[in-house]
Write a structure and sequence with these properties.
19 helices; single chain; alpha/beta; 567 residues; 57% helix; disordered N terminus
């Protein structure tokens, strides 16, 4: 390059360096915390978000773990560009050795070549991970260099295949390597710097990796000194449109050692900072977080699904479980047992011959006098009707819709699937819950005993009066002297006992009948409350708990992603 051109390029380099972005250091511990947060996110969404949407996140976590476990003293820099951009010449000029083949045929660079500055300790495993074959690895170390190359010790420079190669395999290799390297130097030339492919397919995709991106306009010596600033300004405009505003933009001349000063200085600074790998991984995390952000949105509910949904579900479960039927059976059983224990003793045995309503349904709360084997785990409650099954399905759907309302896809679908996941198990669970519910019918109320004793007393009194009267008639029939019956006023005591016992029994029955009705209705309400509690517990376990588990995982995922987004 001429002196005037050198001066112009020097001024441009200075202006480019002044425009360079201020890069913040990436703390390794913070980066590890962000990666851990992504792992928590992946664990939370596993099974609820399609795997295809999580491939990039899994890849970044695995790749970051591998890179952080490898040498932190080395910085992997890739020269990427199109055919004819001169990147292989740039690679050889930086290494000051003829390492990568240079030519005009397409494609020239078919595989990646690597040059390592300084000791190889740690670089071998790094290159194995990157995938550069041993026969394409070179060491930039010579006794003749003295300390000329010491500022680049730790640099691993790669010459990538041409991304616009006619061989598809070359482009795939470029894409693979671009996902692994720490810093990318994009090499463009004055003729094709505005090529659509490099801007739309590559540079624009690297907008979240501005901190590890450098663009060089190679072959700058082909431009007139007055044209170079215009081309650089136009290239800067294109980079800004690609979202790469502030990235270093440097003119280079591969055939002139002085034409590499700006790029070499940039590489020396990058190697000295040892931040490129961390910045690259941080950029990868930024990209993953941005891609995953549509999967989370509003704050998840911090309480279980609302009372309205739970109550509607409980009512539907009660209908499907036959709670009204059971409650009616409890009322009938109470009346049956109360009358059997408080009615006339002479009619009790006949009363007990009638089936107990609860025993017909094989329900607990059996008659204390019934055999123990009459209490069974399965009931004979009628199966739910089609209307009751539909009401239950609608109630479950309502719980899912209200719980998943406002959540981004695919969470509403996940909530609905969770709510319905155990629907087939509900009939058996409801039947077991009804069978296991204490209906409060195992204990005989104390007032039954009082009334029962009273009934026995008046019945015995009536029997005594009857026997006394029959004995008097028998004596008369036998012609014996008639018995003298004591009297109560003018009424003989046998008649008083007989009629009084009968009237007292009828009166006791009349008085206890409304009491029995009131107590039976009370027993029904108590049984309904206990049954609703039981079927509500089934709804909690089989519907609400799975829904809440999905919402809790959504909250975990949301919190984890927010933490992963903090730099």
């Amino acid at each position: 390059m001429s002196a005037s051109k050198d001066g112009t390029v020097g001024n441009i380099v200075g202006r480019m360096r002044e425009a360079m972005r201020g890069e913040q250091r990436v703390d390794p511990d913070t980066l590890i915390e962000r990666l851990t947060a992504i792992q928590r996110f992946l664990g939370a969404v596993d099974g609820h978000v399609p795997d295809a949407q999580l491939v990039a996140a899994h890849t970044v976590v695995e790749r970051a773990g591998d890179r952080l476990a490898l040498s932190g003293r080395h910085t992997v820099v890739a020269l990427a560009g199109a055919t004819g951009s001169g990147k292989s010449s740039l690679f050889n000029s930086l290494a000051r050795l003829d390492l990568s083949p240079v030519g005009v045929r397409r494609p020239t660079t078919g595989v990646a070549h690597a040059c390592v500055w300084g000791p190889l300790d740690g670089a071998v495993r790094l290159l194995d991970w990157v995938g550069v074959l041993p026969r394409h690895r070179f060491v930039r170390e010579s006794p003749l260099d003295a300390d000329d190359e010491s500022n680049l010790h730790g640099l691993v420079l790669l010459d990538l295949p041409d991304f616009d190669s006619v061989q598809h395999g070359h482009r795939l290799e470029v894409d693979r390597l671009l996902g692994l390297v720490d810093l990318v130097v994009w090499v463009v030339d004055p003729q094709k710097y505005a090529d659509r492919v490099i801007h739309t397919s590559y540079l624009r995709e690297f907008h979240r990796h501005k901190d590890v991106t450098v663009v060089v306009l190679n072959q700058a010596d082909r431009l007139h000194p007055t044209e170079l600033p215009k081309v650089l300004d136009d290239l800067r405009r294109l980079l800004d449109a690609d979202g790469l505003g502030g990235v270093p933009l440097l003119p280079t001349v591969a055939v002139d050692p002085n034409g590499l000063e700006g790029l070499r200085t940039e590489l020396e600074r990058t190697v000295a900072e040892r931040q490129a790998a961390l910045r690259r991984l941080s950029g990868d995390v930024d990209a993953v977080v941005a891609d995953l952000e549509p999967l989370v949105g509003p704050e998840p509910p911090r309480a279980r699904p609302g009372d309205a949904s739970a109550q509607e579900l409980t009512r539907a479960l009660a209908g499907a479980a036959g709670v009204p039927t059971v409650a009616a059976a409890v009322e009938g059983a109470y009346r049956h047992r109360a009358v059997s224990n408080t009615g006339w003793p002479l009619l009790r045995s006949w009363r007990k011959l009638r089936p107990d309503p609860l025993r017909r349904l094989h329900l607990p709360g059996r008659d204390p006098d019934a055999p123990a084997e009459s209490l069974v785990a399965a009931t004979s409650v009628p199966d739910p009707t089609a209307a009751q099954r539909s009401a239950l399905t609608l109630a479950i759907r309502a719980v899912a819709e209200r719980s998943g309302s406002g959540l981004p896809a695919p969470w509403p679908t996940a909530v609905t699937a969770a709510a319905r996941a155990r629907q087939a198990d509900l009939p058996g669970a409801l039947d077991h819950a009804v069978a296991a519910t204490d209906l409060g019918m195992d204990r005989r109320p104390g007032w039954w005993r009082v009334v029962g004793v009273l009934q026995w007393v008046v019945t015995l009194a009536a029997l005594a009066g009857l026997v006394w009267l029959l004995l008097g008639y028998a004596v008369r029939l036998l012609g014996l002297p008639p018995l003298e019956h004591p009297t109560l006023g003018v009424v003989p005591w046998p008649t008083v006992l007989l009629l009084g016992g009968l009237l007292a029994g009828l009166l006791a029955a009349a008085v206890t009948r409304p009491v029995v009705g009131w107590a039976a209705r009370r027993a029904r309400r108590r049984a309904e409350e206990r049954l609703l509690t039981s079927v509500g517990s089934v709804g909690e376990k089989y519907v609400l708990d799975p829904v809440w588990a999905v919402l809790a995982r959504y909250g975990t995922a949301r919190d984890a992603l927010r933490e992963a987004g903090r730099r």
